[in-house]
């Protein structure tokens, strides 16, 4: 028996605390924040009841009895939980050991099959990361990839074409090694290896009627070990550098989007591609596609920030190149059109009066749209202005300028299409020379005919030793001489049709009685109406010379 009248108070306090714990555990279970065993509940409930009865009845026997019950419930439960925990630890350890062994075996197999490709993938990632800080962007990345791909597939050349979503064209972004062209070369391309390579570096392919577009559309890799028997491959000649032994074409796909094509070739003396090389190329194509996509996204973001600053510099340079006011020449009237497609323009024109009987006109289009291209344009303009003051012919002047801007190591980074015309007002003659794609047209007032008088020669800056021919024509009062850049004739409307020579001819014939400036304005308005709101991706420049 408990003799003290206050001996029951601690038991009641303990019982109250136990009740609070009991309620707390119930709340935990209801909210499902933790798991509580029912054995623990029963033990706690028995203990609480024993403390209350002991306090009320003042008999410690009730407390002893409930303590015994709680012990009988908790001790076996604790033992069983301990055994269960140990079994779980043993099972987990066994599973981990099995997984480790399995993974090691898988790693061994994987390493045996793909260790080289894994290393290549790692190298690609490092190269891609380095390209983020390279101002040249995608070309050096693809150049590095091309060298490694040639090494792994034993190819002789690699070509990478990337889709331009705006124009639905595949543009060549990299040429590594000696790739044999599988497409029809233009008729005006001489069968010289360097000239063919230059053509490929700047080639564009539509999405139809060529092997690149077909591979992109079907999104299936293609192995061609007998190109002579495949109708998709065009044979361009019997020269050794135009003979191919085999091709591999791999579409570059990211998720559900096709972004380009990777092509590999072997020279005819090196035979065919093996199945293993074909499989390797397909795997490498996946790496290349992912790297190109990631790099393109990064470059696009950077370009948005840099173009504004670069465009401001280029605009300032451009203002200094384009004549603010055309000279007043009694014997002729001059009109111009100048529509730059972007902030950085590749076109420029110039009018130079060196003597009263010698007036020179220049229409130039430099490849690329960067400050590097602008530098080439500045060099070309400075050299032409210097040489024009001599008595040399148009062909000689263009030849000298070509040697001045041609690269010493014969690599073609930038070149220019140039039309140079020298008007002799005394003898009513025009001497001209041209290189590249800028055409020269003449409208005869006597015969009312419109024809192109320029021929096809190498662009300025391609080959240092190119000599440009002199051409001479007599002009009469009312005759109109026109020169322009290809961006004007290739301007597109909403239906995808080009402005073309025919549209230009129609305006000239209709407005031939007007002066040069008025004719140029008519052409400008006609071009604007033709294109409408369609975005243009090349500069449009034109010069009209009307003989009075």
Short description:
The protein has 548 residues and is of the alpha+beta class. It has helices at 9-31, 38-57, 61-131, 138-153, 193-201, 211-218, 275-321, 371-388, 394-405, 486-489, 500-511, 516-531; strands at residues 157-164, 169-177, 204-206, 222-224, 244-254, 257-267, 332-339, 347-355, 358-366, 416-424, 429-435, 440-444, 449-452, 471-474, 480-484, 540-547.
What would you note in describing this structure?
By secondary structure, the protein is an alpha+beta fold. The protein has 3 domains: about 1-130; about 135-305, Beta-Lactamase, CATH 3.30.450; about 320-545, PPM-type phosphatase domain (Phosphatase 2c, domain 1, 4-Layer Sandwich). It has helices at about 10-30, 40-55, 60-130, 140-155, 195-200, 210-220, 275-320, 370-390, 395-405, 485-490, 500-510, 515-530; strands at about 155-165, 170-175, 205, 220-225, 245-255, 255-265, 330-340, 345-355, 360-365, 415-425, 430-435, 440-445, 450, 470-475, 480-485, 540-545. The strands form 3 sheets. It has a 6-stranded antiparallel beta sheet with strand order 3-2-1-6-5-4, sandwiched between helices. A 5-stranded antiparallel beta sheet has the order 7-16-15-12-13. The protein has a 5-stranded antiparallel beta sheet with strand order 8-9-10-11-14. Strand 1 (about 155-165) and strand 2 form a beta hairpin.
Give descriptors for this structure.
six-stranded antiparallel sheet, Phosphatase 2c, domain 1, Beta-Lactamase, 3 domains, 548 residues, 47% helix, alpha+beta, five-stranded antiparallel sheet
